[in-house]
From TrEMBL:
Residues 233-264 are annotated as: Disordered. GO terms for biological process: innate immune response. SUPFAM superfamilies: C-type lectin-like, vWA-like. It holds the Pfam family Lectin_C. The keyword Plastid does not apply. Residues 31-178, 288-473 form the VWFA domain. Residues 233-256 have a biased composition (Low complexity). SMART domains: CLECT, VWA. This is VWFA domain-containing protein. Residues 1-20 form the signal peptide.
């Protein structure tokens, strides 16, 4: 998620270029009611919070105004009651309303409810003849009901009322959370969109687009399009009209619609091959995290809300409970012209308390409206101090959210960032940018760790990318083992050379013994690509000592199996297409096991040769799984 805006409901006065992701409406106005499900059918307050994040992502770009879009938010069963006020025409009030729902779920828990009562509330408050808050005349009307209710009879009982809604011009879209459309087949609706509970944390942009295009932007029967006028839901995003400030005064300046620029991938693709990825279960991360958040005027209130929603989504899936072996410590620092510690790592041992304070702490309620200067250097200085106070031997990362960047003078953050990375810690950067703005903020990537720089251009992938980056921080090898890193991507494979000459058979048994303090599943190395082969050869030469080993040759986990009458790998792989045989090999007359032998071509050029499994001596190169969310490694002293 990000605060970059899709210009979903922009003024419709300029002709625009057409593409497949755009929906045509005339005029660009709607009366929209969105129902937020806070009932116990949602199972947990975390799922409710993620539902609210999804609704924030759906609505934050809408241009709210009495002459354009009006939005009513209905909270169903929050605090065991219904909350439904008049239509909003101020987007900042929408943010506050959604956060009040989030806090109610966290503070009071979830209460049982049903779909029929929800529909009756809509009828009495917004749709029926005696409704408190009716629609405008000659305006297309939409209702989007987020619902996890699954009672078939309960749902079927709403058919007549929902049919009446349709007759009155309300098109109803049901977003079924954790329920299938079959459950709702006996009621009446315009569109059904299914979202699984496990998808709420990282809702695909395609689902948001479906709700927008098929549930909101379509034209009612009888509405025509005399000229090209548009509300766009293009997944190539642009930022909403922003607030520009001068010291001592505030001027609201709406920027004209901007043609989105093509967005290149943030990073090159990962290497091709069946390399072992580290396990990535967010709930089982064992790392220390310091969030450093830009609260200058350049971030804007919408941006700050989206940053908080992202942090909420990420931390809400982790465990901060110190009684659990694999848990996370989290701190948060804000910065603009100066920096301030908002949350200390020692303040929290419960993720729900952290996320609640994230939305209620007055220091994070708004940006520093009159301060458009940024001093990331000061923010990273405090982050470095905070990292030093956190757990010893645990992997650490700083996550920087920035809407502005300064690489000159006292604000230059490059040296302090280099010091942090030189201490063995990672830095993740997220540049919040708009296509027409200066590219300077994109330069923040120069302080990040490899493959850990992201932009909000790719907002539909951002949470998923950040989760992967945090799992990369949590992906490392036991002390003394070397990790497989290909094109700056860390993999769940670790290597260690044996220290004495022995037969292939002896080293085969030595590898599990060397890994007994971790998984105990160590084995002679598996080589499955030229890229990995080059890495292993270079690693072995770095560790080769000519005083202790005459020639830098090493055993690999490849051997001839008499039963199947073919070469197989010791880890069970039988169909690896890669091989690197020397001329004249394999040669079963010389032996059934395999060694990598250095050639005369270059120092790191090795070829495979056949050796006697029990007679020919050499060193072994062992392979073991990395430490990750599955395999715990205790803190290193």
């Amino acid at each position: 998620m990000s605060f970059l805006t899709w210009s979903l409901f922009i003024s419709c006065f300029l002709p625009v270029t057409i593409n497949a992701n755009e929906c045509y409406v005339t005029p660009c106005t709607r009366d929209i009611i969105v129902v937020v499900d806070g009932s116990s059918s949602m199972q947990t307050s975390t799922y409710v919070s993620q539902e609210i994040n999804m609704i924030t992502k759906l609505t934050y770009s809408w241009t709210l105004d009495y002459s354009k879009v009006r939005l009513a938010l209905v909270g169903a069963y929050f605090g065991n009651e219904f909350n439904g006020l008049d239509y909003f025409t101020d987007s900042s009030l929408v943010e506050k309303r959604l956060q009040s729902f989030r806090l109610a779920a966290m503070q009071y828990g979830l209460f049982s409810g049903n779909f029929n009562t929800t529909v009756r509330f809509l009828d009495e408050r917004y749709v029926g003849e005696r409704a408190n808050f009716g629609p405008r005349l000659n305006i297309q009307k939409r209702i989007v009901i987020f619902s996890s209710h699954s009672g078939i009879a309960d749902i079927a009982s709403t058919k007549d009322t929902l049919q009446k809604f349709g007759q009155l011009g309300y098109a109803v879209t049901i977003v079924g959370i954790g329920v299938s459309e079959d459950v709702y087949k006996n009621t009446f609706y315009h569109k059904f969109v299914s979202v699984q509970l496990f998808e709420l944390g990282t809702v695909a942009q395609s689902i948001i687009d479906t709700i927008t295009e098929d549930g909101i932007c379509f034209l009612d029967q009888g509405w025509t399009t005399p000229k090209q006028e548009i509300c766009t839901t293009s997944t190539t995003t642009t930022r909403a009209p922003t607030t520009t400030t001068t010291r001592g005064a505030t001027a609201k300046t709406a920027k004209p619609p901007t043609t989105p620029k093509p967005v290149p991938p943030t990073h090159p693709p990962f290497p091709v091959g069946d390399y072992q990825d580290c396990s990535c279960t967010t709930q089982s991360l064992y790392i220390d995290i310091v969030f450093v958040v830009d609260t200058s005027a350049g971030m804007g209130l919408e941006g700050l809300m989206m940053v908080k929603a992202e942090i909420n989504t990420l931390v809400g899936q982790m465990s901060l409970d110190p009684s659990i072996q694999k848990h996370v410590q989290v701190g948060l620092i804000k910065y603009s012209n100066t920096s301030e510690i908002v949350f200390k790592p020692s303040d929290y041992d419960n993720e729900d308390e952290f996320t609640e304070d994230l939305w209620t702490d007055p220091r994070l309620e708004d940006v520093d409206e009159y301060d458009d200067e940024v001093n990331l250097h000061a923010g990273l200085q405090k982050a470095a101090q905070m990292l030093g106070s956190m757990r010893k031997g645990v992997k650490k990362v700083v996550v920087v959210y920035a809407a502005s960047y300064n690489d000159e003078g006292r604000d230059d953050a490059r040296q302090i960032a280099s010091n942090i990375k030189g201490s063995g810690f990672d830095i993740i950067t997220v540049a919040f940018v708009e296509p027409e703005s200066s590219s300077l903020v994109l330069k923040i990537s120069e302080i990040s760790s490899h493959r850990m720089n992201f932009t909000s251009f790719r907002d539909d992938l951002l949470v998923e990318e950040l989760e992967d980056a945090l799992c990369q921080v949590n992906c490392y090898c036991p002390n003394g083992w070397r990790q497989l890193i290909l094109e700056n991507r860390r993999y769940g494979e670790c290597f260690f050379p044996t220290k004495i000459d022995a037969s292939w058979t002896a080293t085969k048994y030595e590898c599990p013994a060397l890994s007994k303090d971790h998984t105990g599943n160590g084995h002679l190395v598996y080589v499955n690509s030229a890229l990995k082969n080059t890495f292993l050869n270079g690693f072995y030469m770095e560790n080769w000592d000519p005083k202790n080993q005459e020639k830098p040759n090493y055993d690999i986990g490849y051997y001839y199996d008499k039963t199947t009458q073919k070469y197989i790998w010791i880890n069970g792989v039988t169909n690896n297409p890669y091989s690197n045989w020397a001329d004249g090999h394999p040669d079963l007359t010389k032996g059934e096991c395999v060694m990598a032998r250095q050639t005369n071509a270059t120092e790191t050029d090795f070829r495979w040769i056949s050796i006697n499994c029990n007679v020919d001596n050499g060193r072994g190169l062992c392979q073991e799984a990395a430490c990750d969310s599955d395999f715990y490694c205790p803190p290193e002293n």
